[in-house]
Design a protein that fits this description.
The protein has about 120 residues and is mostly beta strands. It contains no helices and eleven strands. Strands 2, 4, 5, 6, 9, 10 and 11 form a seven-stranded mixed β-sheet that branches. A four-stranded antiparallel β-sheet has the order 1-3-8-7, with no helix packed on it. Strand 9 and strand 10 form a beta hairpin.
Length: about 120
């Protein structure tokens, strides 16, 4: 069982920045991949960014060039740096982990971008 705890959400004006953190209960190098998803009201949960055990990254087209996923293995933490935020980035952001075929989710953190 992998426990994930997100933090760093909040209210920010358009054009601003936020950094989300996801602390894992285990060594993230033992996790196959970690990712950030987001879900806006009335919409499906979509992938924002992911990072594999080997450090490869992948981004949704809508956030490329604005968001950066990174990790600190010593702290068992994955980050999502979000720059140039837009109102359409408003959503609950969830941390996700995949390990040996099992999915794990955090509780989510709200990000609200005002225009």
């Amino acid at each position: 069982q992998v426990h994930l705890v997100e933090s760093g959400g909040g209210l920010v004006q358009a054009g601003g920045s936020l950094r989300l953190s996801c602390a894992a209960s285990e060594n993230i190098f033992s996790i196959d991949a970690m990712a950030w998803y987001r879900q806006a009201p009335g919409k499906q949960r979509d992938l924002v960014a992911e990072i594999t055990r080997l450090g490869s990254t992948n981004y949704a087209d809508s956030v490329k060039g604005r968001f950066t996923i990174s990790r600190d293995i010593a702290k068992n933490t994955v980050y999502l740096r979000m720059n140039s935020l837009k109102p359409e980035d408003t959503a609950v952001y969830y941390c996700y982990a995949l390990r040996v075929g099992d999915d794990y989710w955090g509780q989510g953190t709200q990000v609200t971008v005002s225009s």
